[in-house]
Prior knowledge:
Layout: H1 8-12, H2 17-27, H3 31-37, H4 43-54, E1 62-65, H5 71-77, E2 84-88, H6 91-98, E3 105-108, E4 122-131, H7 140-147, E5 148-159, H8 168-174, E6 179-188, E7 202-210
Parallel strand pairs: 1-2, 1-4, 2-3, 4-5
Antiparallel strand pairs: 5-7, 6-7
Helix pairs in contact: 4-5
Amino acid sequence: MSDDEFDLARAYRLKTPEDSRALYRDWAADYDHAFAAAYGYVYPDLIARIFAERALRDDQPVLDIGAGTGLVGERLAARGPVQMTGLDISPEMLAVSMDKGCYSDVIEGDLTGQLPLKSGSYGGLISAGTFTHGHVGPDAIDELLRVARPGALFVLGINAAHFEARGFGAKFQRIADDIRDLTFLREAIYADGSSSDEADRMALVAVFRKAGG
């Protein structure tokens, strides 16, 4: 696949889970070098760093939401031992991620429905690039709270351009009693000098804990 086929506008046009599966099936083999490396995609490093800086010893196991080819997972694993599961809608992307050895297991799942996970299973939940236009909206946070145990640490990157328009701001207001210590960090998704058409995109990284614990 040539670099110009990594047209992010195509990703923003996604409407259904089937659209997502088709897109990431096409992107899986070349995603790391033809997109992430070529365009200075620093989002995975950012999420891994923020989580590692705030995590306590008990904030495991970790669920990497929208794990894709494992870019966040491998960067978090590089910071020290961590028990981690990769979750993604694309089996092709997950197959690439398993070759990196950063996950104890991977699970194919659709965040727009119920996940095949037990309630209260995870002590940490991380995500980069999943909560954005055309992908997963704010209602999925309810399901993530279900699978998190009380006190679990969340570090969720949300595309800042769609934060209010897609209802993320309103969602965090509605779940205020279910979470604590909420902070938003505004961070760049791409490195300075990126040649991506989306180089000026910013993330609002939601950092919080599930209430209790």
